[in-house]
Design brief:
elongated, 7 helices, Ribosomal Protein L25, Chain P, Alpha/beta knot, seven-stranded parallel beta sheet, 246 residues, 13 strands
């Protein structure tokens, strides 16, 4: 069963009007017809079964039916990651969405390889399309937010918004290991996971993160690629929060 997302202004009564890229996918790829069923999720993560009532060139009309169970993690895990080159960022967004990440906060730090964001608007739209597609495939109830990339010092200011901030740094050996994550996460319901760019974090940045309230962790004795570290850290935290079978 295919799942799509809609905004409040696309709904009138029990009728939802799908538009844009959704119409292209429905008509050209899935080749839907009136009477076909699909799943629709609206604001607030409310998902319902829906029946297609009309198919036009620029719009697909659906009638909402019975409700569907939610699929969102109990703990809200946001992922802040050093902005990566091209497809590496796409990979983090796609896999993080599948796992259950609630929001993505890319940032630029001293060792970030991507220094200048050209065509920022088009790249942001591309990232949102990746998240939207991954959320539908993974049967998410909500679309994760994708923030615009900010400097590292601005990211530090956001630490105060979270119950817990976990800062993963390969040189944090001797401080905290993945085995201690469960004790830290406990009953936490809103946490931020922070991983670095291709060049990693500097010792100064790690110190700034600690001063801002983060707890420093390592992912073990092996050095992971930046995109791997981001996905593994998010998966570990969701697991220890009890949302991946933990």
């Amino acid at each position: 069963m295919n799942r799509f997302f809609y905004e409040a202004n696309q709904k009138t009564g029990d009728t939802v009007f799908l538009q844009g890229e959704d119409v292209h996918h429905l008509t050209r790829v899935l080749r839907v017809q009136t009477g076909d069923l699909l799943e629709l999720c609206g604001p607030g993560g409310i998902c319902r079964l829906a029946e297609i009532t009309a198919v036009a060139k620029d719009q697909v009309c659906c009638r909402l039916l019975e409700g569907l169970p939610g699929s969102e993690p109990r703990a809200k895990v946001d992922l802040a990651f050093g902005l990566l080159k091209g497809e590496k960022t796409d990979f983090v967004l796609q896999k993080g969405t599948e796992l259950g990440v609630s929001a993505f906060l890319p940032f630029l730090s001293s060792r970030t390889v991507v220094k200048v964001q050209k065509d920022k608007d088009s790249k942001q739209k591309r990232r949102q399309r990746i998240v939207r597609s991954a959320a539908g495939q993974a049967r998410r109830s909500l679309l994760p937010a994708v923030r615009e990339a900010v400097p590292f010092n601005e990211l530090l200011q956001r630490f105060a918004e979270y119950e817990l901030v976990l800062f993963f740094w390969e040189e944090a050996a001797g401080e905290n290991s993945p085995l201690q994550l469960r004790e830290e996460i406990g009953r936490c319901r809103r946490l931020l996971v922070v991983t670095g760019p291709e060049g990693g974090f500097s010792a100064e940045e790690a110190g700034q993160a600690r001063k801002a309230g983060a707890k420093l962790f390592t992912l073990g004795p092996r050095i992971l690629r930046a995109e791997t570290a981001a996905v593994v850290a998010a998966a570990l935290c969701l697991y220890e929060a009890g949302d991946l079978g933990g």
